[in-house]
Amino acid sequence: xxxxxxxxxxxxxxxxxxxxxxxxxxxxxxxxxxxxxxxxxxxxxxxxxxxxxxxxxxxxxxxxxxxxxxxxxxxxxxxxxxxxxxxxxxxxxxxxxxxxxxxxxxxxxxxxxxxxxxxxxxxxxxxxxxxxxxxxxxxxxxxxxxxxxxxxxxxxxxxxxxxxxxxxxxxxxxxxxxxxxxxxxxxxxxxxxxxxxxxxxxxxxxxxxxxxxxxxxxxxxxxxxxxxxxxxxxxxxxxxxxxxxxxxxxxxxxxxxxxxxxxxxxxxxxxxxxxxxxxxxxxxxxxxxxxxxxxxxxxxxxxxxxxxxxxxxxxxxxxxxxxxxxxxxxxxxxxxxxxxxxxxxxxxxxxxxxxxxxxxxxxxxxxxxxxxxxxxxxxxxxxxxxxxxxxxxxxxxxxxxxxxxxxxxxxxxxxxxxxxxxxxxxxxxxxxxxxxxxxxxxxxxxxxxxxxxxxxxxxxxxxxxxxxxxxxxxxxxxxxxxxxxxxxxxxxxxxxxxxxxxxxxxxxxxxxxxxxxxxxxxxxxxxxxxxxxxxxxxxxxxxxxxxxxxxxxxxxxxxxxxxxxxxxxxxxxxxxxxxxxxxxxxxxxxxxxxxxxxxxxxxxxxxxxxxxxxxxxxxxxxxxxxxxxxxxxxxxxxxxxxxxxxxxxxxxxxxxxxxxxxxxxxxxxxxxxxxxxxxxxxxxxxxxxxxxxxxxxxxxxxxxxxxxxxxxxxxxxxxxxxxxxxxxxxxxxxxxxxxxxxxxxxxxxxxxxxxxxxxxxxxxxxxxxxxxxxxxxxxxxxxxxxxxxxxxxxxxxxxxxxxxxxxxxxxxxxxxxxxxxxxxxxxxxxxxxxxxxxxxxxxxxxxxxxxxxxxxxxxxxxxxxxxxxxxxxxxxxxxxxxxxxxxxxxxxxxxxxxxxxxxxxxxxxxxxxxxxxxxxxxxxxxxxxxxxxxxxxxxxxxxxxxxxxxxxxx
Length: 954
Description:
Layout: H1 2-19, H2 21-59, H3 62-65, E1 67-72, H4 80-85, H5 89-102, E2 115-120, E3 124-125, E4 140-146, H6 149-152, E5 153-158, E6 173-179, H7 180-186, E7 193-197, E8 203-214, H8 220-223, E9 232-235, E10 244-252, E11 267-273, H9 284-297, H10 299-308, E12 313-315, H11 318-361, H12 363-371, H13 376-405, H14 411-436, H15 456-479, E13 482-483, E14 486-487, H16 489-492, H17 494-509, H18 511-523, H19 528-538, H20 544-579, E15 583-587, H21 596-603, E16 608-621, H22 644-650, E17 656-662, H23 664-673, E18 704-709, H24 711-717, E19 722-726, E20 729-738, E21 750-754, E22 765-770, H25 774-782, E23 788-792, H26 793-798, H27 804-834, H28 836-848, H29 853-886, H30 893-896, H31 914-941, H32 944-950
Parallel strand pairs: 4-10, 6-8, 17-21, 18-20
Antiparallel strand pairs: 1-11, 1-12, 2-4, 2-11, 3-4, 5-8, 6-10, 7-8, 9-10, 13-14, 15-22, 15-23, 16-17, 16-22, 18-21, 19-20
Helix pairs in contact: 1-13, 2-11, 2-13, 2-14, 2-27, 5-10, 9-10, 9-11, 11-14, 11-20, 11-27, 13-14, 15-17, 17-20, 17-29, 18-19, 19-29, 20-27, 20-29, 20-31, 22-24, 27-31, 28-31, 28-32, 29-31
């Protein structure tokens, strides 16, 4: 019996696929693209999380990321031979190999850079007279006998240090080497000797036999302890005066560790394991944090001590690096979930629309089968088999493409997503079709939207969705996209729910304008307007499902575009706040002034539109806060911002401020060029008591300079003149206005005065507007010496796009915008194709009544216009409303600025991007008009007899 059924079902499937190969191919392509996107999304998230974790570990300082296991020197109670044996290479190698194997997964070490040996932890004073003494303080050196020196360095001069046979704690002569940087700074030459004292004050002679150059100076071998590579000039903590001394490291020959046991420099035995992040994935982050915590103070430490000794300790900053990466991932994840849920919902609705289109095209065929005794189970089974033959291979191919193109990430989330797409399509068509044929229906029944009354069930469903949407938006506004327990799907789905409610509301109110517009149209002589409105009211293309797809797609595209625009704006603002203008020239020291020749040369370079010389003096002590005047410092100016109460509250924090001397006219132009708050230059005019001083004249204490201050400084100074003492002169200032930002400094506390009124007028900074050539700008500055620094806004801006996690998340949002626009256009096309046969029949009938070809084209265009305008207008409103509602709860700092040292980490809210709102909406209208025009042109080429015979009751 089962064999007969299988034999009977095969011809049906082959016949259907041969009868409609175009529809089957189109469905397969749509499923393939959707399955690819569904499978690629989780893999792309895994990919940027994995690359971000590897990037953070690989780019971190080796002194932080390296896992070091160390223990003090062997106890004095042990025999000397045993103590010496524990510091020789064979024993160190044995223990290091065992520790390397014992590292718990997923922590893996870079075996090529593992180092071990004996080093001193207490610097020893080097009294050789030829060593440099900057402040008459001799240098202090550490000594290390570390493995692998020949593998990680090249010999620059001299010979490699060697260990004589039988080096013991009683040896008094060993060989060593230093790096090129150490030799240059400490004046060390080949053949020099350095004395290291034992605990009994006996000299150990260290002969420098060679100078080496590191093969990879930034690698963990040389950077785990930076003094191995480069000496450092450090302050003397024991001196009451600011004196400095040199400190560095001497590299002893391998296997000379026993000689350090006789010193009082507190030698330790160590093993360093630099992490190998190449095999790590994003999900390994939490396991890695747990493993590191166990090694530092847990079961892992007990295992380490069984191998390396009971006094061994584990030290590393790798856990801090992984935790910082996890915080960024947790902050970015909920924002990415908004894009994923939005595009996933659009894709699901479009797939349901495709099933509805196929069901509508086959309604008469299946009704005939039902009338001739076909069961719902039999019809549904045939449709399921027919759909599965097309959908399952397409889904598998989409999954394969996602795996090939996105080569990172776990396979099972993508496989589940692709399977979900296949299941939705395979189930949607049979279920929708069989439900339509549970009861016999009259052939050709009309579904007039104007006269249809929504059922109670629909009203209850819409109210339920409304409550969910309001709850999601309220939660997002209150707590943001990131919650303590991870991603909240209800919160992340808020844009989808807002678009859903908007679609249901628009479908409810859609008949009202049609009803109002049809009345005046009925009184006109022409029939085109009335027929188009009547057709638009009855057309299923304006139903809830097509409109929902369009609004979801447009809202998701607008949200994604706003995210991208907000990231770009935040990075532009941060770069401007850091540099102050398009380019900046300043001295290396705070007190370095710019020569007049340098200012003239740079201001005249090609590409420089404007230049503003500025004198900046940091950490100027402000007078004590004025009693009772804090709330009255606000003045009427376009630059005034903030509230008096907030200013008074911040007055105590403005004990020091930056003094900024400007040329009011040039600075006002520069502020206007870069979009900063309007600067009231007229209030700083140097007239009367604040007029410029003649050269060489000292200012008297009675001089009062008008000043523009930050809100906190203005609250501290009050309304009356206050005396300040600066390196630019002593004078009194009176606040005449406030502004929240100044281009010259990043400090929030500042005081702006007219530079011409200062005793010392020479600028310390030159701000440039324009796009000068970087090479020519730096060349012009270098002509005046190497003590000036050039900063470019474009270079500062480029720093914010270097982390794989941020770049990957940004690419996902770009893909979300593109996919949202594509699905929106596809939804328009599907909705118009669903009613295409009806429009063709309508034109055929009207042509028999005298309708011309031009009138037919206008009729179809006017019929498509209401739905297109409804979708475009609704999409614009939904996108704008979604961003306006959700922007207070969304902070884009992790996507825009996280991980960049010195960047502004203030809140970065969403903003509406007009291009992301307008382009997809305009595309909807344009596509609707194009499809209507093509249908009218194609219908005019076919004869009326053919169309009228094709459907006898349409």
